[in-house]
């Protein structure tokens, strides 16, 4: 194991962008932990993994990958030897042969979950009102408006292709389980986290704790960094 300090690389999920990590990045930097955010194209799973790999090529030394929601599939699909740990923030973790949609729809969603379908442009957008009711119900009204304005749609090509051998079978995983998540049911999150044998931290937070509970997200990431540094 390297004695170098790991760089934290944070991948956003669908309907968010890299700014959704800004509070967490500030907290990590205050601890002297290097953190990198980047934008996923959300055009296909392969495109998103390529974007992550491009970032990892620029990282010196080991890396801890953090993925929110859909990006859980992305961080587990890289083959970079730099990765020391995976951190899932209310994230999806399909196993080999499964699609993101398979795990997303594994259990019935509650009545606050939005109905999702491709629009006329072929992309899946989140209804504006869902930011306040399901995506980030604990955020301030202004944060909810900003999130809706910045949302990035996702292509069905990201969620309908079976994944390969996931990296969580090779490196340790941490999981922040969002107990008040209306996008990914708590039961689904727990199933995936336990299947990965992840170190689970469960909190009464919404789907986007990087914005609404950044200190809790930071704590899980810091635990991963400390336990993977040499």
Structure description:
With 230 residues, the chain is α/β, with parallel strands linked by helices. It is built from nine helices and six strands. The chain has helices spanning 22-30, 45-58, 71-75, 100-104, 130-135, 141-150, 186-196, 209-212, 214-228, and strands at residues 7-11, 35-37, 63-68, 83-89, 173-178, 199-203. Strands 2-1-3-4-5-6 form a six-stranded parallel β-sheet, with helices on both faces. Helix 1 (22-30) packs across helix 9 (214-228). The radius of gyration is 16 Å and the shape is globular. 46% of the residues are buried.
Per DSSP, the total helix count is 9
Strand percent estimate: 5-15%
Mean pLDDT: 95
Poorly predicted segments: none
Give me the CATH fold name. Answer: Rossmann fold
Number of beta strands: 6
- Helix-strand pattern: EHEHEHEHHHEHEHH
Note the gap between the termini. 5 Å
CATH superfamily, called what? Alpha/Beta hydrolase fold, catalytic domain
Rg over C-alpha atoms, rounded to the nearest angstrom: 16 Å
Instruction: Give the class from helix and strand content and strand pairing.
Output: alpha/beta
Q: What quaternary form is this?
A: single chain
Percent helix: 25-40%
- The side-by-side strand order for the widest beta sheet comes to 2-1-3-4-5-6
